[in-house]
């Protein structure tokens, strides 16, 4: 009892206690669980410092941080890729990687597909699963909402500039999974962390959607999770962003929530998609 | 003497209280008016920017069939055709109102004319309960029950206007029913008595007198239900499929103004064409609800029982 009180005293005594300092991090709903978990951990380690986390979408995050309304804008996209954002004003902090995988209804009966055929499915050229070795079943496409980060990443790496067929759209990953698991012939795409046994994943050209394959870029459908600040971060914002890259977050929270730590990547990708190996 | 004079000349406590109450109510009303005006101004300024700032043709917007604000057509015009959503919104609204009206009238007649006791004791609370259910619950039931049923019975993927219609039908039914009940109750008692005295049966009285006299009220109820259906976003978004394509039949994915609006707004950046185009949809919705409001006013005025 005395020991624990003493422990508490030393803990609180060591951390500089500020009275109610807080910053806001707003944006990508895909990143929300990660930033929330890290923010809570940070607050419990640093009394009196709060990280308010909100969703709202990558577009919201980028525009709010550009307008100076929030300190951190979460985004799945590079700021350069979003129309209406002046990326020169913003500083990029990559805190994690997220891999995306196509998911299909379990009854379809396909487990591997070529990139070419996957593209044809999403452009509407292939409309029946038997054309790629599955059941005689119509393909039901489910897209994410136009402008969403996941959709952008998927289209960038799978569609190769071709136009996606007009189809159903859903705005949340949970909803997408629910629909794919219950609709015969359905196909969509979600972040790795959202894959459950209700749905089946597809490997592409024999490459399985695993974290290791993302790390060496064999699996190309992935994106960075960015935290943007307007100008160089200062004060609590800087401290929190540094905290995001500590081992505590990178090796604990990040993998737990299904993201991939930046530190474990063997390659680096820029906004144009050029790959550079990271020499270790 | 002086005392009495001053007492008489001074405002009484009651009068002061009344003045105070008046001021408070006036401020409240003023506040509401300011809020409404502000909303109109905000939505209009953003929504009209699509046409004035981004130079989108109004006809391309209202009658274009391709919605993809992020990209441009072959001729270089932005793809902001809202016709698929406008059509989708109107079809689900009309269909759900068409299905809901007979049910609502039937229920209301039963509850006011045939079995008022059972009506007020059991049915009314049940119907009022339906109003209180959050729309996300309707949406989820739609997603897990209605969509698979539509898929099994009618084919397709299940997502589409038909599923949306069923969900909206249940959602607007309580509104239309309770307003129809009010309309039927408002028919003066002596109408019924006169009819019965002339030797009409109960059925004849209901059909030829009560319902006829309540037509304006029933119409108001239906328009009110349609306004609700038109503006519903969450539930419909979960079952309609949200594909900005012209609806060819009732079982392929379609979209409504609300579903496209709520899905897109978080992914766009304020001030860009994509964002403004969504605000234009919002403006359209606002104008439509204004229109529904005016219609109910007109019907109400025309059919006032004197």
Automatic annotation (TrEMBL), chain B:
Residues 86-296 form the ABC transmembrane type-1 domain. Keywords: Cell membrane, Membrane, Phosphate transport, Transmembrane, Transmembrane helix, Transport. Part of the binding-protein-dependent transport system for phosphate; probably responsible for the translocation of the substrate across the membrane. The chain crosses the membrane at residues 20-44, 85-110, 122-147, 159-184, 205-227, 277-300. The keyword Transmembrane helix applies. The keyword Kinase does not apply. The lineage of its organism: Bacteria, Bacillati, Bacillota, Bacilli, Lactobacillales. This is Phosphate transport system permease protein.
């Amino acid at each position: 009892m005395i020991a624990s009180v003493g422990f508490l005293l030393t803990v609180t005594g060591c951390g500089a206690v500020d009275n109610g300092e807080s910053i806001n991090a707003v944006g990508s709903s895909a990143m929300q669980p990660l930033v929330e978990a890290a923010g809570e951990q940070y607050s419990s380690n640093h009394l009196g410092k709060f990280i308010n986390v909100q969703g709202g979408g990558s577009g919201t995050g980028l525009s709010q941080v550009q307008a100076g309304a929030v300190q951190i804008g979460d985004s799945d996209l590079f700021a350069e890729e979003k129309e209406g954002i002046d990326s020169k004003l913003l500083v990029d902090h990559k805190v994690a990687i997220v891999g995306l995988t196509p998911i299909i209804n379990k009854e379809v009966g396909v487990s591997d597909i070529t990139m070419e055929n996957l593209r044809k499915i999403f452009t509407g050229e292939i409309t029946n699963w038997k054309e790629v070795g599955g059941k005689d079943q119509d393909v039901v496409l489910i897209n994410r909402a136009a402008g969403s980060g996941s959709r952008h990443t998927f289209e960038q790496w799978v569609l190769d500039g071709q136009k996606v067929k007009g189809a159903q759209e859903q705005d949340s990953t949970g909803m997408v999974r629910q629909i794919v698991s219950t609709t015969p012939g359905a196909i969509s795409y979600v972040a790795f962390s959202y894959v459950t046994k209700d749905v089946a994943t597809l490997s592409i050209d024999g490459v399985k959607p695993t974290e290791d394959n993302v790390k060496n870029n064999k699996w190309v459908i992935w994106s960075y999770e960015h935290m943007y600040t307007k100008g160089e971060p200062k004060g609590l914002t800087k401290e929190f962003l540094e905290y995001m890259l500590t081992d505590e977050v990178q090796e604990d929270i990040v993998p737990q929530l299904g993201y991939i730590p930046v530190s474990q990547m063997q390659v680096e990708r820029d906004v144009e998609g050029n790959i550079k190996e990271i020499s270790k | 003497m002086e005392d009495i004079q001053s007492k008489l000349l001074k405002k009484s406590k009651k009068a002061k209280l009344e003045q105070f109450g008046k001021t408070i109510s006036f401020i409240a009303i003023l506040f509401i008016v300011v809020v409404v005006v502000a909303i109109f101004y905000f939505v209009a300024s953003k929504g009209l920017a699509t046409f004035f700032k981004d130079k989108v043709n109004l006809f391309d917007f209202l009658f274009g069939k391709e919605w993809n604000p992020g990209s441009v057509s072959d001729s270089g015009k932005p793809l902001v055709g809202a016709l698929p959503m406008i059509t989708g919104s109107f079809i689900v609204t009309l269909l759900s109102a068409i299905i809901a009206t007979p049910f609502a009238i039937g229920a209301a007649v039963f509850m006011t004319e045939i079995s008022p006791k059972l009506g007020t004791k059991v049915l009314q609370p049940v119907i009022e309960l339906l109003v209180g259910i959050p729309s996300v619950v309707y949406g989820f039931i739609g997603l897990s029950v209605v969509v698979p049923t539509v898929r099994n019975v009618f084919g397709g993927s299940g997502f589409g206007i038909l599923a949306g219609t069923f969900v909206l039908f249940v959602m607007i039914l309580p509104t239309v029913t309770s307003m129809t009940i009010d309309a039927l109750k408002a028919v003066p008692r002596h109408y019924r008595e006169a009819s019965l005295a002339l030797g009409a049966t109960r059925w004849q009285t209901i059909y030829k007198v009560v319902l006829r006299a309540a037509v304006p009220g029933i119409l108001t109820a239906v328009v009110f239900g349609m306004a609700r259906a038109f503006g519903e976003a969450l539930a419909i978004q979960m079952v309609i499929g949200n594909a900005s394509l012209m609806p060819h039949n009732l079982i392929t994915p379609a979209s409504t103004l609300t579903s496209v609006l709520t899905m897109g707004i978080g992914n766009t950046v304020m001030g860009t064409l994509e964002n403004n185009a969504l605000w234009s949809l919002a403006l359209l919705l606002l104008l439509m609800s204004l229109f529904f409001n005016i219609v109910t006013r007109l019907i109400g005025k025309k059919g006032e029982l004197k």
